[in-house]
């Protein structure tokens, strides 16, 4: 943090200034949701989305550009929220993140937060998945549409994908993370070539983490599962499936969990959790 950090509300007038790093692109207060831009000197450094829920201010997303991390910018935003909370006589400041995000865990612990597990993630062994003929039979039925790995998207499709991602609270920066898999991550398109759903996959040691599976009216979910299972089989044929490797689905969405259970023959186990960070204001 070489320059003073400034926190500003994101509005229709300044949204383009932050758009490239904004997780949620709408940039306006929706109900009690607040959108903030974080500026280091005269450089846009990050964005944050905060829900105002009565006595609680809840950080829904906090993103700082990778090159500007560990410079006190996120800490400056927390101090801003503390002051905001005190003015409104709030009682708690909270945040939630996946247990694999060690950098966030360290950050919130150092900031005096108390951490608790609040929801499970679910996983299945990769080797079991590639041998699950029931799952392959299910996803091999003729479905209209096509599924394309992120690395094979055309320039037009990639631009549409980035826009589609923003509707679900992600910025293009997520595609540049070193553990993001352009091979396993994919998009599904309907017969009119409209982008309908996507799956974001990351590698974590021997594990594959499905961080987001989303779309319009559940269209294309089968296609994205087919792609994932097909790629796992390719890896297995090449001897690249580790004995203890898992595929981990992160999320609290019951419909997604039911889909995973159905498509994978119920071969699921709870293996991790989301972490809830709480601090009194």
Span from first to last CA? 24 Å
Order of helices and strands: EHEEEHEHEHHEHEEEHEHE
- Overall strand count: 12
Domain count, please report it.
2
Quaternary structure annotation: single chain
Strand content: 25-35%
- Low-pLDDT residue spans: 24-30
Could you explain how this protein is built, in words?
The chain has 281 residues and is an alpha+beta fold. The protein has 2 domains: 5-90, 3-Layer(aba) Sandwich (Aminopeptidase); 120-272, Gcn5-related N-acetyltransferase (GNAT) (Aminopeptidase, 3-Layer(aba) Sandwich). Helix content is 28%, strand content 34%. The protein is built from 8 helices and 12 strands. The chain has helices at 15-18, 73-87, 102-110, 126-130, 133-139, 155-166, 221-237, 254-263, and strands at 5-9, 33-40, 43-53, 56-64, 92-98, 114-125, 146-149, 186-189, 195-204, 207-215, 246-249, 269-280. A 12-stranded mixed sheet has the order 1-2-3-4-5-12-6-11-10-9-8-7, with helices on both faces. The chain is globular, with a radius of gyration of 20 Å. The chain starts with a strand and ends with a strand.
Name some characteristics of this structure.
alpha+beta, 281 residues, Aminopeptidase, 2 domains, 12-stranded mixed β-sheet, 34% strand, 8 helices
List the helices and strands and how they pair.
Blueprint: E1 5-9, H1 15-18, E2 33-40, E3 43-53, E4 56-64, H2 73-87, E5 92-98, H3 102-110, E6 114-125, H4 126-130, H5 133-139, E7 146-149, H6 155-166, E8 186-189, E9 195-204, E10 207-215, H7 221-237, E11 246-249, H8 254-263, E12 269-280
Parallel strand pairs: 4-5, 10-11
Antiparallel strand pairs: 1-2, 2-3, 3-4, 5-12, 6-11, 6-12, 7-8, 8-9, 9-10
């Amino acid at each position: 943090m070489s320059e003073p950090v400034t926190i500003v509300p994101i509005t229709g007038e300044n949204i383009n200034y932050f758009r490239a790093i904004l997780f949620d692109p709408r940039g306006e207060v929706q109900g009690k949701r607040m959108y903030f831009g974080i500026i280091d000197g005269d450089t846009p450094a990050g964005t944050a989305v905060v829900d105002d829920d009565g006595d609680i201010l809840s950080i829904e997303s906090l993103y700082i550009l990778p090159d500007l991390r560990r410079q006190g910018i996120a800490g400056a935003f927390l101090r801003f929220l503390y002051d905001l909370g005190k003015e409104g006589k709030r009682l708690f400041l909270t945040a939630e993140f996946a247990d694999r995000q060690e950098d966030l865990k360290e950050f919130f612990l150092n900031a005096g937060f108390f951490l608790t597990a609040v929801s499970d993630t679910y996983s299945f062994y990769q080797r079991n998945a590639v041998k699950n003929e029931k799952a392959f039979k299910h996803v091999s039925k003729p479905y209209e549409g096509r599924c394309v790995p992120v690395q094979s998207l055309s320039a037009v499709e990639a631009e549409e994908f980035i826009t589609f991602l923003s509707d679900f609270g992600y910025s293009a920066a997520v595609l540049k993370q070193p553990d993001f898999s352009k091979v396993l991550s994919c998009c599904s398109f309907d017969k009119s070539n409209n982008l309908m759903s996507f799956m974001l996959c990351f590698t974590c040691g021997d594990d594959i983490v499905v961080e987001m599976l989303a779309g319009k009216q559940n269209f294309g979910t089968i296609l994205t599962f087919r792609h994932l299972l097909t790629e796992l089989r390719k890896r297995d044929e090449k001897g690249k499936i580790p004995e203890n490797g898992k595929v981990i689905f992160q999320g609290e969405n019951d419909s997604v969990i039911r889909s995973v259970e159905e498509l994978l023959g119920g071969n699921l186990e709870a293996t991790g959790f989301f972490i809830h960070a709480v601090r009194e204001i």
